[in-house]
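Bumping my old thread because nobody answered last time. Still need a sequence for this structure:
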């Protein structure tokens, strides 16, 4: 047994544990009630993908790690679902790649921003951005546009898990290299990403960290070689095919 009353041998253990973390996030004021709906959509796609990381997605995760290591200023964007599901994994990836963490919410409230910052600090994060909100992403309405000038606004590479389509597009239009984690290959966010990662954040973040550690001593040229030739369309097409046919 773990932090919920479900035996680890239960066939839906991981999925039930994940639901429990999201519920807990809502209770603590970290996750918005809409986060429950996003979780449900994600679960459905993960079920269809066979709850596994496909080989093409593993390659995308290696490319994402190379981008984060190669970046001038990488930032990991944190929303309420991600903070509830993978706080430790976010901090570990930030440490492994030298990235900043910034809370960036679709349904932004100051209470929730602070609840997430406190939650990440309790999990060991030193600095968490997102409270200054002194810049705006062009092309979005006021609340959804807010970012930190020395965070996402300045970043050249941004990892955005579970981002909504408009914001993903607006960030891409600012010229940022976007790495999007989303289980739905048909969603607009992964479709606008330089690197679409069609995987559960629960698997994706530790796997990107593993690749980042593996590439830690790589030269800039070697990182560029990992990035070169990556085709986002291939990941979208292969994951959609896997969902439709159940194959790899
Ligand atoms: P878009 O505007 O890009 O079409 P959307 O309307 O599909 O976005 P939401 O309804 O907010 O976006 O859904 C959230 C997205 O996050 C869904 O595509 C869902 O598959 C994905 N998602 C939910 N949970 C996870 C998770 N644990 N890991 C990865 N992706 C997830």
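Sorry it took so long. Here it is:
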């Amino acid at each position: 047994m773990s932090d919920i009353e479900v035996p680890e041998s239960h066939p839906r253990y991981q999925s039930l544990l994940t639901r429990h973390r999201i519920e807990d996030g809502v209770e603590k004021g970290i996750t918005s009630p809409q986060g429950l709906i996003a979780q449900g959509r994600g679960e459905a796609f993960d079920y269809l993908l066979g709850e596994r990381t496909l080989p093409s997605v593993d390659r995308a995760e290696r490319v994402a790690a190379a981008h984060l290591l190669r970046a001038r200023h990488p930032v990991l964007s944190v929303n309420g679902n991600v903070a509830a599901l993978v706080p430790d994994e976010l901090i570990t990836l930030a440490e492994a790649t030298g990235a900043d963490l910034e809370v960036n919410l679709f349904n932004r409230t100051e209470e929730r921003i602070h609840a997430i910052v406190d939650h990440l600090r309790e999990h060991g994060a030193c600095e968490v951005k997102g409270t200054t909100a002194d810049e705006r992403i062009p092309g979005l309405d006021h609340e959804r546009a807010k970012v930190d000038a020395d965070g996402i606004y300045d970043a050249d590479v941004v990892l955005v898990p579970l981002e909504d389509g408009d914001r993903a597009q607006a960030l891409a239009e600012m010229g940022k290299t976007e790495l999007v984690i989303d289980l739905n290959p048909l969603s607009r966010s992964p479709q606008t990403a330089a690197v679409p990662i069609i995987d559960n954040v629960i698997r994706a973040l530790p796997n990107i960290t593993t690749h980042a550690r593996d590439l830690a001593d790589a030269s800039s040229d070697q990182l560029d070689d990992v990035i070169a030739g990556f085709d986002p369309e291939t990941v979208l097409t292969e994951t959609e095919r896997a969902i439709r046919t159940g194959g790899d």
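The longest strand covers residues 74-78. Let me know if any region looks off to you.
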